[in-house]
Design goal:
With about 120 residues, the protein is mostly helical. It has one domain. About 75% of the residues lie in helices and about 0% in strands. It is built from four helices and no strands. The longest helix has 26 residues. It is globular.
Length: about 120
């Protein structure tokens, strides 16, 4: 089966984009000794790379997925990346509550991909 680049590239780019986004938004939570203005500038700098990946990911993804599928995919990827980040970088526990909540959100994304119902 040949590799469908227009189906795979957006997923990989959205994963990379979300790594940048998560560090831009939440990475600073471990840096409490810097001025807020500096943290904001650094976060903007990191977010630039997130946009450099997210925008083309959605453009390429539009060739295979509809916008609702891209958004649902983005949300599930965001949660997965954040879960790993939270445990590894922030050293936060990942509880059963988190697991159940994330599963429910992923189930919602599944409905987006399985529609429309008749």
């Amino acid at each position: 089966m040949p590799l469908n680049w227009t189906a795979l590239a957006p997923i990989l780019m959205l994963i990379a984009s979300n790594v940048f986004m998560t560090f831009a938004w939440y990475g600073q939570l471990k840096v409490e000794h810097r001025a807020m203005w500096l943290i904001v500038l650094i976060s903007w700098g990191i977010a630039f790379f997130e946009y450099c990946l997210a925008v083309p990911a959605n453009r390429i993804g539009r060739l295979t997925y509809d916008p609702a599928e891209l958004k649902a995919m983005q949300e599930v990827i965001t949660l997965a990346v954040f879960a790993v980040f939270s445990v590894t970088w922030l050293k936060e526990p990942f509880t059963l509550n988190h697991t159940i909540g994330f599963i429910l959100i992923a189930a919602g994304a599944l409905f987006v991909f399985k529609g429309p119902f008749t």
